[in-house]
Specification:
alpha+beta, 8 helices, 191 residues, five-stranded mixed beta sheet, single chain
Length: 191
């Protein structure tokens, strides 16, 4: 009888995890971007469990996204509006997913986000990624009346390099030289 109760409890928990899958995926990606999963087998197991489609031969890059003046305006924004902006921004980012590109948004902190970009559709990766970044900037401005800045990493075919790609996108984002440009590519600032 105790075993049956444990089995029922486990089934109930698994059902909850499935219902919350987007949040659990985001939590995994946040931890991964911050370097918490160094073991490739551990990463693959998580990807499978969380139903994150990773096609071999795909191209990966990371966009670091910052809502400009978020910290300066934070005291004036009520909690509900803050969550609404976060949710809306993640929806805008996700809306650019298609058959040849999957984009997973991750909120890092209040006004800081990352977009993990998987491209599987041909040779025009850089152009598609730049177009996605420009469209994201325009949509956020039009729909949320916010300005954002995006730093874009170099690309890789190795999923385990996500933490490195995230660092590259942050370095591009935080570059002062291009401070009036809403989009900075790491390859443009690389020494």
């Amino acid at each position: 009888k105790a075993q049956d109760m444990q089995l029922m409890e486990k089934e109930k928990m698994m059902k909850q995890i499935v219902e919350m899958l987007p949040l659990v995926q985001e939590q995994f990606f946040r931890e991964f971007l911050l370097g918490n999963y160094p073991n490739e087998e551990h990463i693959r197991n998580r990807l499978d469990f969380l139903k994150i489609p990773m096609e071999d031969g795909g191209h990966i890059c990371v966009m670091a996204i910052k809502i400009n003046d978020f910290d300066a305006n934070a005291p004036e924004i009520n909690v509900a509006d803050s969550y609404l902006v976060s949710y809306s921004l993640k929806n805008i980012i996700s809306s650019f997913s298609s058959k040849k590109q999957k984009i997973f948004p991750v909120q890092i902190s209040g006004g800081e986000f990352a977009a993990i970009y998987f491209h599987t559709g041909g040779m025009d990766v850089k152009e598609d990624m730049i177009n996605t970044a420009v469209e994201t900037i325009n949509e956020v401005n039009a729909r949320l009346n916010r300005n954002i800045t995006i730093g874009i990493s170099k690309g890789s075919r190795e999923f385990v390099e996500l933490p490195l790609l995230y660092k590259q996108s942050l370095k591009a984002l935080n570059t002062r030289f291009y401070n009036n440009n809403p989009m900075i590519l790491f390859e443009d600032i690389e020494d």
